[in-house]
Design a protein that fits this description.
11% helix; mainly beta; elongated
Length: 190
């Protein structure tokens, strides 16, 4: 394969898409030359959201969410890692925290009387096909009434569609549960 460096004289401000496309293709070809024709797969941090969100009233409230774009998990073995954390209010109300991927709940605490304390959820989603995933999720908490637990789920989301990842909260009053962060990482199977 002969590699020819693109011109750097293209006016980026007038034709940014063309410039980016040409240089990306060039770098992809350099990578393929080094790796023997292997396609480039970009991964790493997809999203960090630290805008806190709390439940409202006694119904289920969406907290922080992220839309995983269609085909983000494009090959079998691609891994999506999710991490979320927050706190329980200092009261005796029942509280429920869930983590959802697309239309599936992949972790729920169930109704617990967590009186103060922090919580953290970690999950890994592994693509096994275009419409199936192997999912493991765990929650740990500093509150002794919350049992640390791990849940395995057989995912059934269509990965050629956008899928929303979100935490939800249900409490006995507003601000019973606050989420402080949601981090999403992608690890392509290279």
């Amino acid at each position: 394969m002969t590699l020819q460096m693109p011109s750097s004289r293209e006016n980026v401000l007038q034709n940014e898409n063309f410039f980016t496309r040409v240089w990306f293709k060039y770098l992809e070809n350099v990578y393929k030359s080094i790796r023997g024709g292997t396609d480039i797969k970009l991964g790493g941090l997809l999203n960090v959201n630290t805008t806190s969100a709390s439940n409202s009233g006694v119904g289920q409230t969406d907290l922080i969410d992220y839309t995983l774009k269609a085909n983000s998990l494009s090959a079998t073995g691609d891994i999506l890692e999710i991490e979320a954390w927050g706190v329980y209010a200092a009261n005796a109300n029942n509280k429920t925290v869930t983590l959802e991927f697309g239309s599936q709940t992949i972790l729920t605490t169930g109704a617990i009387a967590a009186n103060a304390g922090s919580w953290r959820i970690k999950a890994r989603i592994v693509r096994t096909s275009a419409t199936a995933q192997e999912i493991i999720a765990e929650i740990i908490s500093s509150n002794t009434s919350v049992s640390d637990s791990t849940t395995r789920t057989a995912g059934t989301q269509t990965l050629s569609d956008d899928n929303i990842i979100k935490c939800t909260a249900t409490g006995g009053a507003t601000d019973d549960i606050t989420q402080y962060a949601l981090l999403i990482n992608l690890y392509p199977n290279t």
